[in-house]
Amino acid sequence: MSYFSNLRILITGAGSGIGALMAEQLAQQGAEVIVTARRKAAAEAVASSIRDAGGRAAAMVLDVSKLGTFTAFRERLHKAHGPVDILINNAGVVFGGEFEKVDLKEHLNTFQINATGLMALTHTFFNDLTQSRQGHLVNIASASSYVGLPYGSTYAASKWAVLGFSESLRLELKERGLEHVAVTTVCPSYIDTGMFDGVRAPLLSPILSPEKVVRSVLRGIREREPLVQEPMIVKHIDLMKGALPTPVWDFLAKTTGMSTSMKKWKGKH
Ligand SMILES: NC(=O)c1ccc[n+]([C@@H]2O[C@H](COP(=O)([O-])OP(=O)(O)OC[C@H]3O[C@@H](n4cnc5c(N)ncnc54)[C@H](OP(=O)(O)O)[C@@H]3O)[C@@H](O)[C@H]2O)c1
User: Fold this and answer.
1) What is the pLDDT of residue 87?
2) Which atom of ligand 1 is nearest to the CA of 66?
3) What residue ranges line ligand 1, CB within 6 angstroms?
4) Atom in ligand 1 nearest the alpha carbon of residue 112
């Protein structure tokens, strides 16, 4: 029996990238995964490859920007499979470029998917998590939850929001005697999934493999860690930023390539 046996896990944006890999690995470790994506074909491809490998998976369509659909989605999920034990809020988008040249629609969409949708889905599934003996909320944030990200300001803003939301909810659950529900916030630097194609990795922060990040996330869930930060340097950002005067921090951000890493962002398309 693994930690994940008999747990039902809902993952958003699981048609590609670390979402798909988490679904595969969690299923290998005995979980029943609900693979969701905004396109049916993407969710079904991941779920059927899990089933072919002997795992338990179902595909469902869920667009996390469509907040008004969440209640009906939960009802459909409950009817077909039952309540979930773990919610992994993984779906995310980024639109890089000089701030005013990126369409406002893309900036607002980034916030709607990465932050507002994540909070609304957590609200919808909150009772599932509190009613499970192993309830767990996992929010995929980013290393940019800690630093400003030039050429990606609304992405960073959305991920700062996710960190603030996660951390607040974790403390609130404790205050309310609901600490059987764990909250894990995941803050990785750049990962090689295509989402950030074109970026230049800053010093001391090499581009991570999806496998390494997913290994850390699964360990973080098993050990009910509040934070998963990759690579190591991310663990020290808060301390460095707090200790250094702003001009020194800005100089460091510039010379390590943090401030310019997004300048040549192309993304997947
Ligand atoms: N890659 C990195 O460097 C990096 C670093 C730190 C954090 N992260 C975070 O990690 C998470 C996963 O990203 P990834 O690297 O695995 O890239 P990815 O393969 O692009 O995964 C993002 C997923 O979110 C889905 N998505 C986008 N909008 C959605 C919506 N409205 N409703 C439902 N799903 C939606 C995408 O589906 P479509 O294919 O339909 O667009 C895609 O499957 C994201 O939250 C990202 O911000 C990534």
Assistant:
1) 99
2) 31
3) 12-13, 15-19, 37-39, 42, 63-65, 90-93, 113, 140, 142, 188, 190-191, 193, 195-196
4) 31
Residue 129 has pLDDT above 90, yes or no: yes
Residue among 256, 151, 139, 162 nearest 206 (CA):
256
Active-site amino acid positions: 155
Sign of CA dihedral 242, 244, 247, 249: negative
Burial 222-244 (b: 16+ CB within 10 A, else e): eeebebbbbbebbeebeeeeeee
For ligand 1, mutation pick of 34, 69, 70, 93 (most atoms within 8 Å of CB): 93
Helix (H, G, I), strand (E, B) or coil at 211: helix
Q: Using CA atoms, how far apart are residues 18 and 194, in angstroms rounded to an integer?
A: 11
Q: What pTM does this model have?
A: 0.98
pLDDT given at position 204:
87
Q: pLDDT tens, 25-78?
A: 999 999 999 999 999 999 999 999 999 999 999 999 999 999 999 999 999 999
Query: Which residues is 138 bridged to in the sheet?
Result: 88, 184
- Structural domain spans, the chain: 8-255
Q: What is the pLDDT of residues 176-191, one digit of tens each?
A: 999 999 999 999 999 9
Q: Which architecture, in CATH terms, is 8-255? A: 3-Layer(aba) Sandwich (3.40)
Q: What average pLDDT does the structure give for the chain?
A: 97
